[in-house]
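Morning. Coffee machine broken again, so started the prediction first thing and wrote up yesterday's gels while waiting. Chain of 233 residues, entered below exactly as on the submission form.
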Amino acid sequence: MKAVVLLSGGLDSTTALALARAAGHECYALSVDYGQRHRVELDRAAAVARALGAVEHRVVTLDLRAIGGSALTADVAVPKDRATDEMARGVPVTYVPARNTILLGLALGYAEVVGAFDLFIGANVLDYSGYPDCRPEFLTAFEGLANLATKAGTEGAGRFRVHAPLLKMTKAEIIRAGAKLGVDYGQTLSCYDPDAAGRACGRCDSCALRKKGFAEAGVPDPTPYAHGASGEP
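Came back before lunch.
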């Protein structure tokens, strides 16, 4: 079975790719260069796609800086050193307007081209649920749209399914699942604000959740941090 996997080069999407492969899917990885400040993640995505045996890895360029509205696509500071309860309140400034709708739309188009009906996304709602486009209601709604808005769907060639295998897993559970499948998390980047050498800042929300996940999973953190190592920024 062919599947398109959205691959950012981060911890979650990498684990989603590993799980899709383990389930027997022939995986076509799709990354998007949308003008994100942490675009070094695209280099990590290429390495991950090779390591996990993706049939193909495509990168689509779409400059969302033209819209802005996010700390990842505009001149807005990335929040640092926030407590977990603070992260859980409201939609964070690192939310990119309509990003998952756009990314899934591109994945859907790619799926039609390669003849795939399974779309994988590393969406997760447990560690903190500030992103509205990571909710199960959104993913269900997009799946319905996919089957209404495509030639393949309307002609009955197959039924599109949106898979979010990490949706209700904690970061620790995600890391344990990937570790069992042999995922090298040292190849991944989760940081929203890496330095010029591509090292994680260790202080943004994403870094904090990643470090917490490794600690709770009991798995050594292989992340190179800008001011330290092994989860000690």
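The longest strand covers residues 26-33. Going to sketch it on the whiteboard this afternoon.
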